[in-house]
Write a structure and sequence with these properties.
The protein is α/β, with parallel strands linked by helices. Helix content is about 40%, strand content about 10%. Helix 2 packs antiparallel against helix 3 and helix 2 (about 65-80) runs parallel beside helix 7. The structure holds uracil (URA). Uracil binds next to helix 6.
């Protein structure tokens, strides 16, 4: 008797197992989907047979109200009287959807010196960071560390991100996710009191500076970061993300030049920043 043909389900299962063996642990669409803005509403089921009538207009994205989560983050951040209390508040915060979607293990808050004169703000934790609980500890982080060490900054830095949980499949964090975490980022800046910020990657630079341009046009320039109430201001240097530099080693000299510009200002003894 000829062997039975595998069913579609068996074929799909075998393909998924093949991908899982290769390290694929998330399904991505070609275009990013902001599931917060979409209100997690699934599209209506497709009719099984084509209908001859004109298609019904598609509803626009449903804006999920994130104001409650933002307000809760603001209240928790404001109540944190010192750095340790802030870290504990972030770790206990349930309001960021990433906590329940992407992160396998824990909040990834910071590494480095809580009194550092320089804060590096990346985009979001990845898989290695999720496991180890510290930002920039994977390949991109190793490159960042080598660059900081070469610039003499390794002991003068605190490293964090715009969001504290790994986005599923390492996608870029959405503006809504960044807005929910922003009160904690701002409070961290207020408590650490760095003299300047290094913003690694477009998603960090755009969110921190509230600008639309891409990182290639933002990088290498001194721009002003302002807190949302306008009470705090700091010079900020956007630069290329180390993960991008791993893919495009030819761009390293631009990032190195950004770092030297920043170090020169950080080391300037005589002028207020
Ligand atoms: N990329 C980031 O932006 N942050 C990390 O912590 C790791 C990789």
């Amino acid at each position: 008797m000829p062997a039975a043909e595998p069913t579609a389900a068996q074929l799909a299962e075998s393909l998924l197992a093949f991908w899982a063996d290769g390290g694929v642990d998330a399904m991505m669409l070609d275009e990013p989907v902001d599931r917060i803005a979409a209100g997690r509403i699934l599209p209506p089921p497709r009719p099984s047979t084509p209908v001859a009538t004109a298609p019904a207009p598609r509803p626009g994205p449903v804006q999920r109200d994130i104001s409650g989560a933002v307000a809760q983050a603001q209240a928790l951040a404001a109540a944190a009287q010192d750095f340790d209390a802030l870290v504990a508040a972030i770790a206990g915060f349930e309001g960021c959807p990433l906590r329940h979607e992407g992160a396998a293990t824990q909040a990834v808050v910071f590494r480095g010196d809580p009194k550092a004169p320089l804060m590096v703000i990346g985009e979001a934790p990845g898989a290695d960071e999720d496991v180890l609980g510290q930002p920039f500890v994977g390949r991109a982080g190793k490159l960042l560390d080598r660059m900081l060490t070469a610039a003499g900054l390794q002991d003068r830095v605190l490293i964090t991100n715009t969001v504290y949980w790994r986005p599923p499949g390492n996608r870029t964090p959405t503006q809504a996710e960044q807005a929910i975490c922003a009160p904690f980022v701002e409070r961290m800046i207020a408590l650490v009191k760095p003299r300047m910020l290094l913003l690694a990657g477009g998603a960090s630079a755009k969110s921190m500076l509230r600008r639309e341009e891409g990182i290639l046009s933002l990088r290498g320039r001194w721009l002003e970061w302002k807190s949302s109430d306008g009470a705090l201001e700091l010079p900020a240097m956007p630069t290329l993300h180390p993960a991008f530099l791993l893919r495009q080693p030819g761009a390293k000299k631009k990032a190195w030049s950004d770092l030297l510009t920043l170090t020169e200002r950080l080391d300037r003894p005589d002028r207020p920043h």
